[in-house]
Amino acid sequence: MANAFFSDLLATISERGRTLLRRGDPSVARQDSSELLELCEALLSGRGEASATALARDVLDRYHDLDPAHRLTFFEALARDFGPDREKLSQAIESWRSQPNDSDASNLHFASEPRRQELIRRLNRAPGGTSDLVAMRADLLALMKGNKDLAALDRDVVHLLSSWFNRGFLVLRRIDWSTPANILEQIIRYEAVHEIRDWNDLRRRIDPVDRRCYAFFHPQLNDEPLIFVEVALTETIPTAIAPLLAAERQPVPIERARTAVFYSISNTQKGLGGISFGSFLIKQVAEELRRELPKLDTFITLSPVPGFMQWVKKGDDVPLTDEERTLLEALDRPDWFEDAELTAQLRAVIEPLAAHYFLKARTSKGRLIDSVARFHIGNGARLEKIDWLGDLSPKGLRESASVMVNYLYRLEDIEKNHEAYANQGEIAASSAVKKLLKTEGRRLLDMRLS
After folding, report:
1. Residue limits of the Malonyl-CoA decarboxylase N-terminal domain (predicted)?
2. Per residue in 406-445, pLDDT tens?
3. Which one from 266, 376, 400, 402 is the annotated catalytic residue?
4. 12 vs 325 pLDDT, higher one
5. How far apart are CA 306 and CA 450, in angstroms?
6. Of 279, 303, 400, 402, which is the active-site residue?
7. Structural domain of 161
8. Span 188-217, pLDDT tens digits
9. How is residue 330 annotated by DSSP?
10. For residues 11-29, average pLDDT
């Protein structure tokens, strides 16, 4: 109640202040980036708290009215003209050089901070400012493509958003059929892995006794989930997505559930791209489930492999013979998986390829190619199993030739696996996956000898 009252009071003060600003400056109606930049300079110049809050709200509203071209001009000016105060920075550098000490180091640190960081902090004080800044960063990401001059601005925005959206501020909530409709609508809209077709489909995912959905929220975006995960409670580890999503499936009695399957994780805020919540979400949900259902002993994903077929078709290090490439052309047939003999031939080629893709293939920067793999392996999971015919949806066939994978989250091994990957680039993988890679090696040797 106190927070709501304060927010309403602040909004009222802000609106009255904006009215006064408009009366005092008839040119404020001009909707262009140059006027907006003047307002930003005024906001940085230092005013009373109420007028500064009003001015911050006005800057954000004016930004919202800009077209993409003027938004780009605005961002370019922030990157170019709102860097550190060079005179203060030069003085701090000279002071540090003449007699280095902790005080001078602190002065140097603050003097080197770009002015745009303080601008963003002051914009965040406006009612609804946090949400607007997240949306602004989404615009920045869209306009950054091919424009390296905006990289420094984006680093500053990410630096601040990472502080404001750190784990300490996030609230975990369970999503169920009693959740407000506006939040449920966002779950439908932002589901990025397995499309939710309608409200009935959503209810099948969150309402049955063997289904769970959890999301992280932030106090400043109270009705907007930041990221959510859908969970199936099963008796054993699943190897295909269709049975989990089937409309006519029989729910698993909760007392028989031993496995928690994280089968879909979706972000909702483009403006928070690059600020990771997923690892915290999975670990906290696992702890929540273990407290609720002590008999659960396995926490695992059923994950897509979105980069696999692109790598097969365009990768430089794909271990395929000409004969095998010809065989893979059969994947263009929409019903190839209905031919048992062809399916067996394809499996003998694709499963070892998938093992190579995860354990050996890398980008030019030495990273795992697959974005989902980077996420789970980087968070300390183990690559447990490659699931042939795991996803027969059009998207699954197109992106991964039906392949899905299970990543195992063994809570006592997460930190060890994460450290091994972060420090040595080692991927935790089961013997079953490693065996597929060995099979590939024997197959290639046989081909060279024949």
Report:
1. 82-165
2. 999 998 899 899 999 989 889 999 999 999 986 655 555 4
3. 376
4. 325
5. 34
6. 303
7. 1-21+30-165
8. 999 999 999 999 999 999 999 999 999 999
9. G
10. 46
- Annotated active-site residue 276? The verdict is no
Do 323 and 423 lie in one domain? The reply is yes
Instruction: Output the pLDDT for position 146.
Output: 80
Indicate if 11 and 139 belong to the same structural domain: yes
Cβ–Cβ < 8 Å for 116, 78: yes
Is residue 248 domain-shared with residue 324, that is, in the same domain? no
Q: How many domains does the chain have?
A: 3
Run of H or E including 253? none
Q: Quick check: is 106 catalytic?
A: no
Question: Do 406 and 338 share a structural domain?
Answer: yes
Q: Is the same domain home to 158 and 179?
A: no
CA of residue 192 relative to chain centroid, distance: 11
Last residue of a domain, one of 100, 132, 165: 165
* pLDDT tens sequence across 48-95: 666 889 999 999 999 999 999 999 999 999 999 998 877 787 877 877
Using only the alpha carbons of the chain, give its radius of gyration.
26
Domain boundary among 165, 190, 210: 165
CB 27 within 8 A of CB 35: yes
Query: Starting at the edge strand that comes first in sequence, how are the strands of the sheet with 227-234 ordered?
Result: 171-174, 211-217, 227-234, 259-267, 298-301, 404-408, 382-387
Q: Which amino acid is at 366?
A: G
- Give the type of residue at 346: L
Q: CATH no. for residue 427?
A: 3.40.630.150
Two tokens, residue 374: 């980077």
In this structure, the answer to whether residues 57 and 144 fall within a common structural domain is yes
